[in-house]
């Protein structure tokens, strides 16, 4: 009967496998909290405009240099289950609003640190959870109170984008210039229904400084022309998107052909060539200037198309073909039999440019103009990759500001307001839950404290001054100045964050911290 047996006459009852490891009580809580704090601490120094980068090296030697919290946590080899919950906080933050991953992770870690102190003072985890949830509700109230009522014009949106990118790797161009590109991209795909974030693509290409980054009104494809004799630029182009193969059709049944003389062979070859020529003639006859084909194109078809002056590409990715169709207003066609002029799209220009060993096709100025591409440049692969991450975050925060509830003061001002609101409200709470709510306010303080540290200021002195200015003027943040910083009104300096980023950070960090704090038994087996 294995290890599991019935309990008889006082004999022990074995439920778990003999290889099972079990940690209970305060030991389990301490282990989980320590693991969560360690992960949060790993990204703390990346917070803010003066935050530092991390170099992540994989087992195969691949190197990533970044200060993006989500990227750092995703690349780290984390095994502890509680630590993985902090990683999930960052992932959730990234998926929902696209930025604030470091803020959410650091807050979750500090909430755990405060919970550990409360447990040591014999505050029951359930009481801590109740207090944290009440404090999170108060935090969301404070965020609503400090949300600006100003109309989100291009100037404010550019400030949001610039704030998101400040301190991140943007190469030889400052965040302000990139912010203008970001706002233009978002406004291009904005409608009464909101921002179509999926209609904005970022394409990176190394070989030039980041200052060469530009906004392309359309799509960029990595496919190369099928034939060297095809044109590399077509103005006022009629565009076809074909979801088919342009090759000799294969028989649907197995068959053998008995060719006994040269005339029969020539006839077979001519029949195939006629079929292939027919494809090219159908395309050229429909006044197609540029064709994007998702399938394979025979060399003879490509040659015929080149003679007709048609620029053609094959093996185009389905998603890319869909983007091209949206940008040009073309209909995706699955057969040439019903091919009509109405199926064609339009582009002001389709041009092929060489970048080192790479050729890129630019499809610009589509009739529908529903798709735009940020063409990001970088002198090295690492610079280009980090620039792409910065641009992605900026696009996400501008979208969040427009679609999910406006903007709030940055530079730690919102966190100071949250902490003040929680401490003001806690007096009405009875019992030990009050201690948990006060601990939550202390945890929120870690964010402006960390900003002060990373800016070169004394964190305690900075926090005291922040509270004083907030009480006197209603708004106070840490403004990075040279090698240090000052306390001032972040709105006057154009330092703004989406309110949605703050809300999501509070909600996801609280959820993770309360889940980990409630665990008092860890059971693991080989």
Automatic annotation (TrEMBL):
Gene3D superfamilies noted in UniProt: GroEL, GroEL-like equatorial domain, TCP-1-like chaperonin intermediate domain
Q: Where is the signal peptide?
A: none
Record bears the keyword Chaperone: yes
Fetch the SUPFAM superfamilies from UniProt.
Answer: GroEL apical domain-like (SSF52029), GroEL equatorial domain-like (SSF48592), GroEL-intermediate domain like (SSF54849)
Region span, Disordered? 1-37
* PANTHER family per the UniProt record, alphabetical: CHAPERONIN
NCBIfam families documented for this protein:
thermosome_alpha, thermosome_beta
Question: Could you tell me what this protein is called?
Answer: Thermosome subunit
What organism is this sequence from?
Natronomonas salsuginis
